[in-house]
Amino acid sequence: MNLRPSETITNNQLTFGLKLVIADGLSAEAMVVFTSGTFLTAMAIHMGASNFQLGLLAALPTFTTIFQLASIWLVQKFNNRKIISALFNLLARLPLLAIGIMPLLFKGSTTIQVLLVLLFFQHIFGDIAGASWNAWMKDLIPGERLGSFFSRRSRIAQTLNVTLSLATAICIDYVKTHYPAQEITAYTTLFLAGGALGMFSVFLLLRTPEPKPIPIDGKVLKLFSKAVTDKNFRHLLAFNSLWAFALNLATPFFAVFMMKTIGLPLSYVIALGIISQLSSIASLQLWGRYSDRFSNKTIIRVCAPVYITCILAFAFTAMPASLLTRLTLLTVIYLTSGIATAGINLALSNIGIKLAPKSEAIVYITAKSMFVAFFSTIAPMIGGLLADFFTTHQIAWNIQLKSADGINNLKLLNLQGWNYFFLIGGFLAILSLRLLTKVKEQGEVHKRKAVTHMRASLNRKLRKNVSRRVVNDVSAPTLTAKIK
């Protein structure tokens, strides 16, 4: 096991290394499923967490982003991203194991306060490791394969996420129904399993080759300001920050809107989320191939308007009278948004890696993460502060149809509560696309040309499938005759 960066990496070493990166992604994804998201929230609620404490849990991943600056200093001092990534990932997994082990050793020791402290350190160490890992991957993965590789890695990881989430939810519900006294034990067992899988991912990282990095010169804050003053990268920061703000002003309230305003049961909301994930998984390979061919900026310009349309469409989902009509509209929205989100997230991640100079990649990527995290955090906080105001204000636009049978009211627009956030978020996202036009990316292709190619490619596939079916239909009787 070579822990030092290599001067040269052979094709065989690269192929083996990329397989390890995918395996690391799977083990880390399983860890995330078991120790965060819905299951972490459910565990905190079971432990009696207040709304403020639940908010702290949700905000921890973005509050600790500033510690990525420490990663720049460490890489600058030791010039070994593998050791830094592995060491701090190891430290990030220890709090997860502690959460799982403490109830077994000390009864009643895992309080919500202890949980918050342990997860705080877990996120700090994870952020330091993540910044170093991003810079490492930029040097390891060839630029022309960046999109296709990460789309494949994300597709496999999301498939595992959906499968594990469903299986784990079924198991937790079974324990809650048949063994309610053991519910907290089930949650802590998930943390033990997640911590163990996280340790395995550290082992995989240690076996992954690292190209020798170019030493980083200069003070950390000076390097950070260099990333901000780089004109082209600053345009990317401006676009990505406004885009993140716009989306996080609206998307966190989708579930609240569906349950409180439309009145959908939780199972329906979860099912719609799964539909979105599945459509995202199915389209990732396509976006990965197109991002390598047309550039990441082109993919964003194709997918972003589609996703913005989905956000704006949410404002109209409470209007149809029929539940079936609402569910149909929501299904279309989630199906379409899943496809668009896959392309946007992949392209946003890749374009930051691509535009960062090779010698200072960690600085640029860290700057991008910190800006996006800041705006992603303040958006829902502002939304929460404005929520009470919008719930007491309504805009209605109706058309009256008079006939012999009486007067029928046709609702065209009905804005109240969360609907305002969807419209405001959608219009801010449209505004952010104007900032995207200033970003320059090597190899970018005009949106119209890319859409024309995609449409032609889809038509060719459809014609090929139709032709194959016709051939099969024609040849089937002949084959039957011969058999007889």
Automatic annotation (TrEMBL):
GO terms for molecular function: transmembrane transporter activity. SUPFAM superfamilies: MFS general substrate transporter. The keyword GTP-binding does not apply. The chain crosses the membrane at residues 21-46, 52-75, 87-106, 187-206, 236-259, 265-287, 299-321, 327-349, 361-382, 418-437. Gene3D superfamilies: MFS general substrate transporter like domains (1.20.1250.20). It comes from the Bacteria. The keyword Membrane applies. Keywords: Membrane, Transmembrane, Transmembrane helix. Pfam families: MFS_1. This is Major Facilitator Superfamily protein.
